[in-house]
Amino acid sequence: MAKTWWYVVAAVAALALVVAAAQELGTAHRQAAETAITPSARTPEASDATQGIPPGFPDGDTTGVPPGTPLTEVVGDQTFAEDGEIVEGRVFYGFVVVTATNVTFRKCVFRGGPTQDVRPLLDTEHARDTVVEDSEFHPTHPSPSIDGIWAAHTKIYRSEFRGTVDGVKAHTNTLVQDSWIHDLSWFASDPDQGGEATHNDGVQAFAEQTGVTLRHNTIDLSTTRDPNAAVQSSADELRVEGNYLDGGACVVNLDHTPLGRPLTGQRVTGNRFGRNSAHDCPILLSTQSRLRAAEGNVWHDTGDPLPAPERHD
Per-residue pLDDT tens for 45-72? Predict the structure, then answer.
């Protein structure tokens, strides 16, 4: 009888150890699942891209969702139509459209989904006074159809864009500040380019738009295969101030030709330029583009002033 009782005690103790181990394993599994949607470290690709950025300019340590931020998954396309809404700590697995006024996104990740339509991860073109802070744009399914954001009347701060075709398509009253655009996705065939290769731009500002400001960003297309430009613009009243810019056929391309008239109010000042443009061309001006202000632009590696802009259509 005593011997039987000893077996029972041993069995109960063994069962307790199994339960405890299972609980510990379950806790570890839940923590791993949470970590999968909590940015706690940069990917190797992002870390490699950060290594080439000059000190003091936005990079993986100063842009995007802060490590350890709890994030909630949101699956499916979303439309935000309520004025004044504050959206914080979300991962969007779907495409996001804003139609309201004064909507703010804080510490969000925009991933999109599969699509054949040309569209952005976040669309604020038909909204007013949208604000995006400390957020990340990188698609789960990169394709020739997906850009980062199509923005109008929008302010973007401390955000990271990678893996899309264009980082930002900027319309009237768009501000991009303290942000990082890099490692865009190149494709050999793009339906939006008539089947030719993608036409990658860090920021593209459009004709008939005005008041686009790019201030203290890192826009580095040296990390992208065969890019067009870090900044491509046909918008009036463009300000490109205090950025680190690199990559493209020419790094900055100001083009009046979609308008058929001169561009007005072009200011490119206080920027540092890398040397990785295909044509050794920091700034290209079309024949009816003029720089209203151009002081303080230098080569980053030497601090020497840039050469005079190239001029042709």
Answer: 554 567 689 999 999 999 999 999 999 9
Provide CB contacts within 8 A for 286, sequence distance 6+: 254, 255, 256, 257, 263, 311, 312, 313
Q: Do 126 and 151 meet the contact criterion of CB atoms below 8 Å apart?
A: no
Which candidate, 160, 156, 162, places its Cα nearest to that of 174? 156
Where do the domains of the chain lie?
2-311
Residues 246 and 44: their CA atoms lie apart, in Å, by 21
Alpha-carbon distance values, 132 to 83, 124, 150, 175, 281 (Å): 15, 10, 12, 10, 32
Closest CA to 113 of 76, 147, 150: 76
Q: CB–CB of 132/167 below 8 Å?
A: no
Cα separation of 229 and 248, whole Å?
4
Find tokens 């499916």 and name the residue.
76
pTM recorded for the entire structure = 0.85
Residues 152, 11: Cα–Cα separation, whole Å? 68
In which order are the strands placed within the sheet that holds 119-123? 78-80, 96-98, 119-123, 146-151, 168-170, 201-205, 229-233, 252-254, 283-285, 310-311
Residues 191-234: tens digit of each pLDDT: 877 888 888 999 999 999 999 999 999 999 999 999 999 999 99
